[in-house]
Specification:
Blueprint (H helix, E strand, L loop, with lengths): L2 H9 L6 H14 L4 E8 L7 E6 L3 H9 L7 H8 L4 E2 L9 H9 L4 E8 L5 E8 L6 H34 L5 H11 L4 H8 L3 H14 L5 H10 L5
Antiparallel strand pairs: 1-2, 1-5, 3-4, 4-5
Helix pairs in contact: 1-2, 1-6, 2-6, 7-9, 7-10, 8-9, 9-10
């Protein structure tokens, strides 16, 4: 096992900073022959407007232009990552419907690349991109290194999704009681307040009291939204 792989495994259970993790990813990318790397991660809350976190070492001018032009809306690699988890090698065909974007990216040295998306059980989706400006990415190189690149994509997702979802849960600080969690679990299974009352051998008013408290603590407006948010935050597992 190479040093960068051991390095990432060491940091897996300890890192508290996304910047610390990304530095390790940068080192791994260079070891694999890439000048640049990027990780985009979408946290699924709020559901109506999921938060997206972007980490990359692209040229600053390109980062600014990408944001200013709203390129995330037309970037074919992002569109691929939102739909599929299969690896994607950059080609002219991939960018055929976004020629202006493709020409712009290459003008900043982003000429050859590879991307791989991952999604976990909590609905957090992320995508690792490795890119460079020098030699083309050959089929032989991809065949030789793809397992390592896939491993890197998965490890990056495991660590970064943990950091961001844990932080999000801590920021909300719902502090649900064991009974509130139990009621939400049954609600998630489609049980009504009357059903839960019978299952837990308590009054329906008591069930509704726990639901009301959970709705308030989770900063939602009804029990459906509270149940979804609790599940997304990993509180019902």
């Amino acid at each position: 096992m190479t040093s960068w792989q051991e390095d990432l495994l060491d940091v897996l259970d300890q890192a508290q900073s996304e910047h610390e993790v990304f530095r390790r990813i940068e080192f791994a990318a260079r070891s694999l022959g890439f000048d640049y790397c990027a990780y985009g991660l979408r946290v699924p809350l709020p559901l109506s407007n999921p938060r997206t976190i972007l980490l990359n070492n692209y040229p600053v001018e390109w980062q600014e232009r990408y944001a200013r032009q709203g390129y995330v809306q037309i970037d074919p690699t992002v569109q691929h990552g939102c739909r599929k988890n299969t690896p994607l090698v950059w080609t002219d065909e991939v960018f055929a419907q976004a020629q202006g974007f493709w020409e712009d990216a290459r003008s900043f040295g982003l000429r050859f690349g590879w991307a791989k998306a991952c999604i976990d059980g909590g609905g957090v989706r992320g995508m690792l991109t490795l890119a460079r400006s020098g030699e083309a990415l050959t089929a032989q190189e991809v065949d030789h290194n793809e397992m390592k690149m896939r491993w890197l994509a998965h490890m990056a997702h495991v660590v970064l999704s943990r950091i961001f979802t844990t932080r999000q849960a801590e920021q909300m600080q719902p502090n649900l009681t064991a009974r509130e969690i139990e009621v939400l679990k049954w609600t998630a299974d489609g049980k009504t307040s009357a059903d839960i009352s019978s299952l837990l051998d308590v009054s329906e008013n008591t069930v509704n009291f726990h639901v009301k408290n959970a709705v308030f603590k989770l900063q939602t407006t009804n029990k459906t939204a509270a149940t979804v948010r609790a599940a997304m935050l990993g509180l019902l597992g």
